[in-house]
Amino acid sequence: MSDAVGGTGAAPAFTPRVFSGIQPSGGLTLGNYLGALKRFAEKQNEGIETIYCIVDLHAITVWQDPARLRHATRELAAGFIASGIDPARSILFNQSQVAEHAELAWLFNCVARMGWLGRMTQFKDKAGKNREAASVGLFAYPSLMAADIMVYHATHVPVGEDQKQHLELTRDIAIKFNNDYGVDFFPIVEPVIEGAATRVMSLRDGTRKMSKSDPSDQSRINLTDDADTIAQKIRKARTDAEPLPETLEALKDRPEARNLINIYAALDGRTPEAVLAEFAGQGFGAFKPALADLAVAHLAPISTEMTRIMQDVAEIDRMLGAGADRAAAIAGPILARAYDITGMIRSRR
Ligand code: AMP
Ligand code: TRP
Known about the structure:
- The protein has about 350 residues and is mainly alpha-helical.
- The chain has helices at about 30-45, 55-60, 65-80, 100-110, 115-120, 120-125, 135-150, 165-180, 225-235, 255-270, 270-280, 285-310, 315-340; strands at about 15-20, 50-55, 90-95, 155-160, 190.
- The protein folds into 2 domains: about 15-200 and about 310-340, HUPs (Rossmann fold, 3-Layer(aba) Sandwich); about 215-310, Tyrosyl-Transfer RNA Synthetase (Orthogonal Bundle), CATH 1.10.240.10.
- Strand 4, helix 8 (about 165-180) and strand 5 form a beta-alpha-beta unit.
């Protein structure tokens, strides 16, 4: 074994590093904002390096119209910046431009087992009944996601609740790689699923996740919705006739009410308990307008800023390219060492 491989002794201390990604599959919702973007921006202030990726290679695991994909990629970049991600302080780029992701994903395809991937709920949901017709990419999606994270030796991954299973798989892949090759090369990643809104639910059905793929636009708030639309969607959100209770426990069987309380808390940077303490005893007639005002105050400036940023597409592309250069500088040496470990000869250098 070469020196580059490292020993099998005590686990090396990995420098904390944050990585996360979002697919440019069209449209950002309040769920993406509260579960991901808002928290990505907060992470910039924690003294840890932050790397954020627009995962265009993941998006094409289901077919995307190329022109729409280009638009969605730039719009997502605008969404990141408008949500407070500063391309000078964070590395922001699109995945396809750093080839190391796809290369490490291949190594991980040879580590991950068919059985592991077949158990992923996202695959089962997206593939639907006809698994034979799903793309191989959709099946292998989690090994590319593991590579996204591991190619930076990232240790912390902020995501919404729905990504927990993928992060457990990332840990399994890292552990198996380390075991198979007798190294302590890949860190065991920590999912960072925190805050009041790790799972924002549909405004129409409190048992379903708010999602850009829901056929009903009334079910979600889009980051591009204007103030009137946001207020109207919250006014019409499904609720019940009871007043708000004093305790969270009392909201156990009222998922729609619980969801609106969580959204309020996450937007306002408070706990759900604190929000209930303020609104206990009041009905939705009072709570909804307060929530609408809060949501508009937070989201309207983001949507305005996204529109402004989208005026200069060349500048977006330039910024993404600069981010990709910085990302590649980290990923290159890590991939090279992974190749060394697996026995690939460095014949070109
Ligand atoms: P996606 O849009 O599926 O690429 O998701 C991007 C990020 O947003 C991931 O971290 C998701 O976990 C998060 N996310 C998506 N939908 C929601 C939701 N309804 N509630 C909370 N987080 C979400
Ligand atoms: N699978 C994630 C989602 O659908 C997106 C993603 C791809 C990601 N690669 C990642 C998230 C790496 C965190 C880290 O939301």
